[in-house]
Amino acid sequence: MQVSAETPVQFLKGVGEARAKMLAASGIESVRDLVWFFPFRYEDRRHPTRIAEIGRHIESPVLLRGRVISARAHISPLKHLKLFEIVLEDGSGGVKIVFFNQNFLAEQIHRGDRLSVYGIPRATVGGHVQIESPDWEKFEGAEDEEGAIVPIYSKVGNIPPKQLRRLIGVALDEGLPSMADELPAEVRERLGVGPLVESIDAIHRPKELTEEFLRSRSPWHLRIILQEFFAFQLALRIRRAGEEVRRKERRIEISDELREEVRRVLPFRLTDAQKRVLKEIADDLQSDRPMYRLLQGDVGSGKTIVALIAAMIAIRNGHQVALLAPTEILVEQHYQRISQLLDDSVVVAKATGSMNSGERRTLLAGLRDGYVQLAVGTHALLEEKVKFKSLGLAIVDEQHRFGVEQRQKLFAKAAAPDILVMTATPIPRSLALAMYGDLELSVIDELPPGRQQIRTEVRTSSAAERVYAFLEREIATGAQVYVVYPIIEESEKLNLKPLTAGFEKIRKRFVRRRVAMMHGRMTAADKEETMQRFKAGEIDILVSTTVIEVGIDVPNASVMLIIDADRFGLSQLHQLRGRVGRGERKSWCILIHDEDQGAAGVDRLRLFAETRDGFEVAERDLEIRGPGEFLGTRQSGVPRFRFGNILRDHDLMEKARDAAIDLLNEKGLSHAVEVASKLLGSDLAAVTRD
Ligand code: ADP
Ligand code: MG
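Above: inputs. Below: predicted complex with adenosine-5'-diphosphate.
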């Protein structure tokens, strides 16, 4: 029978129904799947050890080659174990090899056979050396023939490793040579990679184990990495192109009048970085394709004002703007800041879960008939009922708090809205590229002038009293402080005990100070009131969970004290740290950890204390926790690749992205879709659906 990539595995020799099922359970259904099932390590079995020398290799694997001089199956009288024992002899000496509960081997291995054995010599109680249940193979070549480098695959059901290797070998021999290369030749050339067939074969059956090969960075591995990166980036681009075919109807103009108004409204001079990204955004707004841009910047770099100017541009051109924020506190803060800045020249409305039905009706009507020009809201903005007259620009603040579907809901509220998403915590470029390869990237890489340096200190809990004394002195100068407990607001079961206990402790310690508590279980109105009082300086110490993590702006706060700091991710700590140092006051971030915190945990905190740059913190956090954890459970869209590592290989990701853009530009969307579906099959739908 002619075997091709499409041939189902059950048509291969040695695959019955049971094995086909096991293979399918591991995602292997066709010959193609089989050859794409790569080894995760290799064993070099080329150089046999002389049996006389195995005493020097106790507990480390050796390859032996010799003749079976005795073979005997019996049941051990002591433990009722079925034993099959052979003695292998190679001219230098002999060794006993024992197989447990595999007495069927007596049918397969006979006295006089020549075997290749790969196993671990162990010293027995009696002082002999023996090898237990090794890998073995009948050795048919000449005595001095080289052995092989053996690929080791992860387990598939209970298919014996040797059988699995054989099966893959058959697929490689019979199915691989005729397999089509799914990367078009011009893409291959652009990526600088060789043919697929050769690469797959080399990864399964390497001739040499070079250091580069073992790091999965040989030219053959690069071919696989780049193919996967390219397919992913192409899919992202296709998704984006699908949105772009809808050209914008609206015309955006930036008149001198509008420029003048913006200048009038601005309470400060924009930094050069703010000006640069603003220009990028303004260009997008004026083009006839919808904007799709990610705005990044460190905590406190001034993303909000940039977004607001973008909003003004849309509004003055007759369009509505939606600003989505993750918490009611943040919505309130944006609302107030906008109202302050714009006076009555723009009609702004809030949309939150705590609106009463009257407020809700007014809002819905105002959005529908276009009276409301700017809507600031939480998830409440996403409801089906919320309809805009003419939504021109959708802005998502702290976008990592929202899932892809939620963003999609907002974007669906207009024909082709311009979209600006902002991150709370900087995402390293590598991850941004991997996750948001379809977004243009703007980065504010400069802080506004006059920012206070925040000193970060690491202390053990035994130093708490000294820290409190320090807080006392700070408060005496009129400053305010935050105390944060590690209660993650997103978890289902919110256990507030550590927080309430902490609150009581702080209250007792600071009897003459105004201490308040805040957490996610409070009603929105209570939270808001507490926050307002803190902003107004009516609270000295705010004891809180991470609800204050994102975006809160109180310039008079000068100390961020974080309890059990080791329980936070570095990026989260950086967010919290960013809550202070926002005004004139010299500011501190103090991290308290348990006495018995391991050295690694303390090192991590020290590292954080020394790192001020949010992008750098993010890189380290990402290294330590990996992309899934780093982004939190809400963001599931981190792609996985066979050999590619989105952190280490960002240059390759960039290359793949450029090649994807080129292909799309040069050959058009339908060709790109064709290429992508060959590369990804049904996975294409998964990427483009998001
Ligand atoms: P983030 O990027 O973290 O969202 P914000 O937009 O909240 O930061 O800005 C942080 C603070 O810096 C705010 O109080 C804001 O008014 C102020 N700010 C922003 N841009 C400038 C600037 N160019 N000059 C001075 N202060 C600025
Ligand atoms: Mg912000």
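The radius of gyration is 32 Å.
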